[in-house]
Amino acid sequence: MRITKVYTRTGDRGETSLVGGRRVRKDSARVEAYGDVDELNSLLGLVRAHMADSPVNRLLGEIQNELFTVGADLASPLEVKAPRIEPDHIARLEQAIDAWNSALPPLREFILPGGAVPGALLHLARAVARRAERRVVRLAAEEPINEHVLVYLNRLSDLLFVLARVVNRETHAIEEEARFGSPPPP
């Protein structure tokens, strides 16, 4: 694919084309879903810009590429041939979760999102992934989708949480436990 022009003027009236040519409103559930995936991908780029080269950074780059597949999948009605998320994508996320989480101390309580800048941004990315997942749930209630996309986003948010903890541990940032209804100590 070669992109020679950034603007087309075809979306100036609030509609866009899906893969396959069908026109939809830009506020449709489908466009909202892949828009949130695009936002997540951009946020992961910001996370990576705040990190040195590392295994986590490289893993996030792989995930960014997979998010293009997620976006293409969501932009393509099921009857259209397009790149799709497959069970292997999900299995890779699960393997990464298990591998990275095994090196972390177990949690006793919920923790506050934060820490070092990359860790805090990964916590934000986790929340954006959860929003994308909710948008896909809404889309799935309206029309058929590839069910693997929903599972992928669910696992991805889990992985982003684990990676936030990993990055914060590597930078010696303190994990603060959440206090439910307790006033701060004097």
Topology:
Blueprint: E1 15-17, E2 23-25, H1 29-49, H2 55-74, H3 87-101, H4 117-142, H5 147-170
Antiparallel strand pairs: 1-2
Question: Can you offer a commentary on this structure?
Answer:
The protein has 186 residues and is mainly alpha-helical. The chain contains five helices and two strands; from the N terminus they run E-E-H-H-H-H-H. It has a two-stranded antiparallel sheet with strand order 1-2. A hairpin with a 5-residue loop joins strand 1 (15-17) and strand 2 (23-25). The longest helix is centred in the C-terminal third of the chain and has 26 residues, at 117-142.
State Rg: 18 Å
Per DSSP, the total helix count is: 5
Per CATH, the class reads Mainly Alpha
Order of helices and strands: EEHHHHH
Main structural class: mainly alpha
Terminal-residue CA separation: 61 Å
Would you give the CATH topology?
Hypothetical Protein Ta1238, Chain: A
Short key terms for the protein model shown above:
186 residues, mainly alpha, Hypothetical Protein Ta1238, Chain: A, two-stranded antiparallel sheet
Q: Gist?
A:
The protein has 186 residues and is mainly alpha-helical. The chain has helices at 29-49, 55-74, 87-101, 117-142, 147-170; strands at residues 15-17, 23-25.
